[in-house]
Design a protein that fits this description.
Blueprint (H helix, E strand, L loop, with lengths): L2 H10 L4 E6 L4 E4 L1 H6 L4 H4 L10 H17 L3 E8 L5 E12 L5 E10 L1 H19 L7 H14 L3 E8 L2 E9 L9 E3 L5 H7 L3 E3 L12 H6 L3 E9 L2 E10 L9 H38 L10 H14 L7 E7 L2 H8 L1 H18 L5 E6 L2 E6 L4 H16 L3 E2 L5 E2 L3 E7 L6 H17 L5 E3 L6
Parallel strand pairs: 17-18
Antiparallel strand pairs: 1-2, 1-5, 3-4, 4-5, 6-7, 6-11, 7-8, 9-10, 10-11, 12-14, 12-17, 13-14, 15-16
Helix pairs in contact: 5-6, 5-9, 6-9, 11-12, 12-13
Length: 462
C-alpha cells in the first residue's frame, strides 16, 4: 500500500477538514469532513477545480497564498472570511502544507481547515456584552439593547430578536431587531398568545428548533398563531421580579439545533439586558426624585402655588421673551386687612382664607399666566404676552373672584376676603427688580384708594 494511501486513510478519520490540491488547483483528495462541509461526498469533489466551490472574490484572495506555497515550498497559516459558490460565508483558520517530489519540487498542497465561524461570532457577542455591562460604566444607554439584539439575530441566524415587557397579561415589545417580520417596537399582544408565556411557565430559558413537534409548543396558541419553528427565550429578572423576556425566533427550522454555547450566550445577553434595564430604572428613579425635589423647592407648601424663587425665574423668562407688540405684565396682590383676620380668628383661619382666595385667583387667570406666593399675604401674577387691555380684564376677574369667595367658619361666621392689586407693563429697559418695584408702588396706591381695586403704575413710578 502506498504512503499516500496510508496517509489518506489516516486523514479520513480526522474531524478536521483536509483537502489535497495539485498544481492545477484541482482537488485530488478530500476527506469526508471536508466534503460534508459542502453537503457533498469525496467522490463528488475529486478532479474539480477549487473555483467550483469558492466565490470569485474569495478565490482571488486565496490564490496568492496558493502561489506562494507552490513557488517557495513554505508552510503557510492564515485566517479569512471565505464566501462559497452557494452563498455561504464562513470564518476559516487555514494551514497549507506543501508536498514535494523526489527532486524537491512542490507538486501539491494539503489544506487543513477549521471552521471557526461560531467561535468568532461568540467572541463578537462576548465583546458586545462586555461593552454593555462594563465599558459603559453606570451611564445608561438603552440603545445597547438594540446592539445586543442585532448581534444576537446575526449570531443565532434567526429572523427576529425582541426584549419585551410583561404587565397585566399584556406583552409589549420594547426593543426589536428584525428585517423579516412586522413587529415594531410598541406592539402589544395578549401574553397568552406569545412564545414568552411558555418561558414564563417554565421560569427558565427554553429553546426549540422544531416547535411543530415540540409538546411545549405544538398545541400552544403561540405556535398556532405565528407558526415559528425556531425559538429561544430567557426571562429578564429585575429585583427578583420577572420584568419580561429576551427572545429570538425564526419562521423555519435552523440547520442545526441550538448548541450549548449558543444557549449560554443567550443567557449572558439576558444578563446584559437586565443590567441596562435595572440601571435605567435607577436613573429614572433618581430623575423623578430630583424633579420631586425641584417641585418642592419651587412650591409654596400652603397654597401649592409657585414660590418667590420660582416666580422670579418665571418673570425673568417672560421679560426675555417679550416682544415690541406684546410684552408682559406683573401684578402684585395683597389680601386686604389680612392681619386683622389673623388677629381675630387665628392663623388657621387665615390659612384657609389664603388657600380659598388663591384657588379663586388660579381659576380666574389664563393658562399662560402664573400665580405666585411672594410671602405672607402678598402674591404676584405674571401675565406673559399681555398688553394693558387684556391684562386689565384678567386682573379684574381675579379681583372679583376673590371678592366672591366665601369662607364659612365652624361658628357660622362668614369671611369675604378682598385683594388690592398693583400692576405694571414691561418696558424695554426692565429687569425683574424694576418692573416688580413699579407694580409694588401701584399696589400701595390701590391700598390708599380704598382697597379691593386694580391700580396701574404710571410714568411717575420708578
Amino acid at each position: 500500500m502506498s504512503t499516500n494511501r496510508i496517509t489518506h486513510r489516516i486523514i479520513e478519520q480526522l474531524p478536521t477538514m483536509v483537502a489535497y490540491v495539485d498544481v492545477e488547483r484541482r482537488f485530488r483528495f478530500v476527506n469526508t469532513a471536508y466534503a460534508s462541509f459542502f453537503d457533498l461526498t469525496p467522490d463528488d469533489m475529486l478532479g474539480r477545480p477549487v473555483t467550483d466551490v469558492l466565490s470569485d472574490e474569495s478565490y482571488q484572495r486565496v490564490k496568492p497564498n496558493h502561489d506562494r506555497v507552490f513557488s517557495s515550498g513554505e508552510k503557510l497559516e492564515f485566517s479569512d472570511v471565505i464566501t462559497f459558490r452557494n452563498g455561504r460565508k464562513c470564518f476559516l483558520d487555514i494551514r497549507y502544507l506543501p508536498e514535494f517530489d523526489e527532486q524537491g519540487k512542490v507538486i501539491g498542497l494539503y489544506a487543513l481547515i477549521e471552521d471557526v465561524t461560531d467561535y468568532y461570532a461568540s467572541v463578537d457577542v462576548m465583546r458586545t456584552i462586555h461593552e454593555v455591562i462594563h465599558k459603559r460604566g453606570r451611564r445608561i444607554d438603552p440603545a445597547s439593547i438594540d446592539e445586543l439584539l442585532k448581534v444576537g439575530v446575526d449570531y443565532l441566524g434567526v429572523d427576529i430578536g425582541t426584549a419585551s415587557s410583561i404587565k397585566n397579561e399584556t406583552y409589549t415589545i420594547e426593543w426589536v431587531q428584525t428585517a423579516k417580520m412586522d413587529f415594531p417596537a410598541g406592539t402589544q399582544l395578549p401574553l397568552a398568545t406569545t412564545y414568552c408565556s411558555v418561558v414564563l411557565k417554565a421560569n427558565n430559558l427554553i429553546h426549540t428548533n422544531d416547535a411543530s413537534e415540540d409538546p411545549r409548543f405544538k398545541d400552544h396558541s403561540s405556535f398556532q398563531t405565528y407558526g415559528l419553528e425556531t425559538y429561544i427565550g430567557t426571562p429578564i429578572i429585575i429585583n427578583d421580579i420577572t420584568w419580561g423576556i429576551l427572545g429570538f425566533s425564526r419562521k423555519n427550522r435552523r440547520a442545526e439545533p441550538f448548541s450549548e454555547l449558543e444557549v449560554e450566550m443567550v443567557r449572558m445577553m439576558g444578563t446584559a439586558v437586565e443590567t441596562v434595564i435595572a440601571e435605567q430604572q435607577v436613573r429614572s428613579d433618581l430623575i423623578r426624585q430630583r424633579d420631586d425635589m425641584a417641585v418642592i423647592a419651587y412650591t409654596d407648601a400652603l397654597t401649592g402655588l409657585k414660590n418667590r424663587s420660582a416666580g422670579m425665574e418665571i418673570l425673568e423668562q417672560s421679560l426675555i421673551r417679550k416682544n415690541d407688540e406684546r410684552g408682559c405684565v406683573v401684578a402684585v396682590i395683597d389680601f386686604d386687612h389680612f392681619k386683622a383676620i389673623n388677629d381675630t380668628y387665628g392663623h388657621d383661619v387665615g390659612d384657609k382664607v389664603l388657600i380659598a382666595g388663591t384657588g379663586a385667583m388660579s381659576e380666574a387667570v389664563r393658562s399662560s399666566d402664573s400665580v405666585v406666593r411672594v410671602g405672607g399675604e402678598e402674591f404676584m401674577v405674571v401675565l406673559a404676552y399681555a398688553d394693558h387691555e387684556s391684562a386689565t380684564q384678567v386682573l379684574e376677574r381675579v379681583r372679583q373672584a376673590v371678592e366672591e369667595t366665601v369662607i364659612t367658619l365652624d361658628s357660622g361666621e362668614i369671611i369675604n376676603p378682598t385683594v388690592s392689586i398693583g400692576a405694571s407693563e414691561s418696558r424695554a429697559e426692565d429687569d425683574v427688580s424694576s418692573i416688580y418695584r413699579r407694580a409694588d408702588q401701584a399696589l400701595y396706591k390701590a391700598k390708599r384708594a380704598g382697597r379691593n381695586c386694580v391700580v396701574w403704575a404710571d410714568d411717575t413710578d420708578a
